[in-house]
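tl;dr need the bound structure. longer version: we got a ligand (iron/sulfur cluster) that a collaborator sent over and nobodys looked at where it sits. i said id run it. heres the input, straight from their email, havent touched it
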Amino acid sequence: MRPILDISTAKVSVELTSKCNLRCNMCPMSNLQRPKAHMPWWLVEKVAADFRDNGIRVRWLHEMGEPLLYPQLAEAIDLFPGCSVSTNTMLLDRATAERILASTLGRIRLCVDTLNPDVYPTIRKGGKFEQVVGNIRTFLELSRGLAIQVEIQRMITRPTAHETLEDFRRFFDLDRYPQARVIEKTCEGLDTSDATDLHDSYYGCFQGYPFNWFIVMSDGRVSHCCYDAHGQQPIGDLKTQTVREVLSSPILGKYMAAFKARDWDTLPRCGECYRNTTGTGVVVDHLVQLGHRLDRVLPVKQVARKIINR
Ligand code: SF4
């Protein structure tokens, strides 16, 4: 039977820090409801050893927070070879770039989001457009010919809708840098911490399945979803548990039952994804729920199976 949280296919992240130097408009950092702190080094080493022993590969070395604020970033990267880091790029000066390029980093995402210097500060609050652009250009030059994937992030929002991938490629002269590409992301519709017109059209589990992630927050607690920024739905704590203990915890079964029953007292963050009460999504969901309830009272599927197996 497939485990509720299958670590062999889950996206695994380790949040080195929940501190950030910016307050971007799509990010819940401004009202983060857990301490803003670096992960203690002993815990980084404990998690790395546990993952190594279990053959678990880390995809992202962050969740909330700006990883470049972590004082031992390059050393941490080397404990999770091939991992990826996403940064707002404000702190990626030449010395920092050289340090992390000498590490085992597999991929870096550089978030500039827009090419419009007037729009930039409305998205990346506290950031400096010219500094970020300069840091990206330096990084592209330093990483040329190295085995690292460089992603430059364009954010799709209303004020950036007219910008194109080709604009970004030309702006950063990417024909010269085969290690780099532009990626597009949208947070506006999915940003359930800040309802927008777009958000109103979303209803349901944005991940498609509630246990696609294994995220170790900077305080050691583990969450099962990348949208659980405040750590409202922890499934364990690697300060005191091993990864195998977390994966076999009864809380996974409890959360799955709560998810199926739409019990948002137990899963308040999931409840946020289901808070839009208009549109067809909610109607379909209620019909599915009704079907489950009817099936419990009148187990049609079981009866049918018995008849077929006779
Ligand atoms: S918070 Fe819950 S409902 Fe929303 S995407 Fe994550 S698992 Fe799905």
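gonna send this back to them w/ a short note. The beta strands are 11-14, 84-87, 107-113, 149-155, 180-185, 213-216, 221-223, 234-237.
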